[in-house]
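Tip: read the tokens left to right.
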């Protein structure tokens, strides 16, 4: 398999889309009066292997005091993901 030095435009578009979504989520969390970097870290915890990922991300960022927010983000995000998947699957089957 060969890898090209020039990135695929589809990949670049998807990365930009993911960045925009993360930014929107950070703005939604903004009503908690948290700093932007803290909201970005909590948002990253939503996609990080559950509780283990929360600990890893917060330890790497030296922000363990955000653990309660990260746990809530992980649990709510997981519930939303499961709900959306179930709705999509009912439409496909």
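Filled-in amino acids:
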């Amino acid at each position: 398999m060969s890898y090209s030095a020039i990135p695929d435009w589809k990949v670049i578009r998807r990365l930009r889309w993911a960045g925009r979504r993360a930014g929107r989520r950070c703005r939604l969390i903004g009503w908690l009066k948290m700093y932007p970097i803290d909201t970005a870290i909590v948002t990253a915890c939503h996609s990080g292997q559950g509780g283990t990922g929360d600990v890893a991300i917060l330890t790497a960022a030296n922000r363990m005091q955000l653990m309660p927010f990260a746990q809530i983000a992980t649990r709510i995000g997981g519930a939303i993901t499961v709900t959306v998947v179930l709705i999509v699957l009912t439409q496909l089957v």
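The mean pLDDT is 75. Helices lie at 9-29, 36-45, 50-60, 67-92.
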